[in-house]
Structure formats: structure tokens, C-alpha cells
Amino acid sequence: MHEITRTATRTDRGTTGTAARRRSGGPPGRRDSRRPGGATVRRPDGAPGGATASHPGTRTATRRTAAVSRTAALAAVRRERDRLPHYWFAHRLLLTLSGQRPVHTLLGHALPDAYDQLIALAPRAPLRPAAGRAAPVVRRCGEYRPRHGVIEAFARIASGDRLSALAFRLELGADARWRCAAVDLGPLVT
């Protein structure tokens, strides 16, 4: 390590500051900018603010941090996945066909034939959950690209223990926007 020439300040709790931490060989403590001189925050037992192996709550804090990190990572993956056109359309079609959103929300995102199919399907709300069931969600969405500018996609829609299928075709327009060209639902069990 390099030598630090800054002098340490002395408080009633002992020596603090960068030089003292470097000399002790321990990890730097957390700095609290609200305290005069940015004093190091210490735990009630007098140890610096960082978690140590001897502290009994460290394992729980580490698990909690890992769980938060895992949750944040899953949320980031989900956000990235939802940017894919077939997932985006699957979610919008689900909202429309379950009665959660009106059909006209897909007006600019569907070609005329597909929009007519949606107008015919939407009043029945074929993906609306039965009373007492959880709201439907897109479990998985797959795609097949038969040629450039075309995606044939399927989605598995889950509502409680009920699983439904949704198939749709997306076509890339001249304006580089994906539009739904066809929608098909598997046999519906009511």
C-alpha cells in the first residue's frame, strides 16, 4: 500500500480517518457526510461500519443483499426481455384479450385483418380469468423467423392453474415498426 500523509483526527471514540484505517489494515468504514468532518459511522459495539465475520448479523445481511441483488437482476432480465417485439406484443394482446385494456390501444400496432380479428375476439375476453383466479400472465413466449421481417410467435398464458395458448404473426413495416398481422387462440376451455 502507499503511504498516506494526511493526519488523522482524534475523537472520543478513537482515531478515525483514512490514515488510521490504512494503518490498522482493516476495511475503510462508511463515511457519513452529515457529521462534522465526515466522521466514520460505527456500530453500537464500537467496530467500524462495515460488516465483519465476527458480527452475528452479517450472514443475514449478506443473504438479504444477495436476495435483493438477485431480484434486481431478474427485474433487469425481465425488462430486457420485454423489449423484444414478440414479448411486447404478447403482453399487449394478453391485456386486450383479457379485458384489461380496450382494443383501440392496438390500433396502430395491428394490420387491418388482425385488428378485425381482435375486434371480434375482444368482447368475449377469452383470456379473462375465472372468478377467484389470478390475473393472467405471459409465462413464456417463443418465436420462429421464417424470413427477414417476419416473426411467428407463440405465448403460454397462465391464470392460476389454467394454461392457454396464444399465437400471432408480426411483420416489419417499411417504417421499421413491427405490426401484428394475425392472431390465433387455441381451443378455449371455459
Produce the secondary structure layout.
Elements: E1 9-11, E2 14-16, H1 18-24, H2 58-82, H3 85-97, H4 112-121, E3 137-144, E4 150-159, E5 162-172, E6 178-185
Antiparallel strand pairs: 1-2, 3-4, 4-5, 5-6
Structure description:
By secondary structure, this protein is of the alpha+beta class. It is built from four helices and six strands, in the order ββααααββββ. The protein has a four-stranded antiparallel β-sheet with strand order 3-4-5-6. Strands 1-2 form a two-stranded antiparallel sheet. β5 (162-172) and β6 form a beta hairpin. The longest helix is centred in the middle third of the chain and has 25 residues, at 58-82. The radius of gyration is 28 Å and the shape is extended.
Strand order of the largest sheet: 3-4-5-6
Beta fraction: 15-25%
User: How far apart, in Å, are the first and last alpha carbons?
Assistant: 71 Å
Taken in chain order, the helices and strands follow as EEHHHHEEEE
Q: How much is the radius of gyration in Å?
A: 28 Å
Mean pLDDT: 78
Annotation, overall tally of beta strands: 6
Residues in helices, as a percent range? 25-40%
What is the quaternary state of this protein?
single chain
Uncertain segments are: 1-15
Structural class: alpha+beta
Q: What is the overall number of helices?
A: 4
Biggest sheet statistics: 4 strands, antiparallel
Query: What is the overall shape?
Result: extended
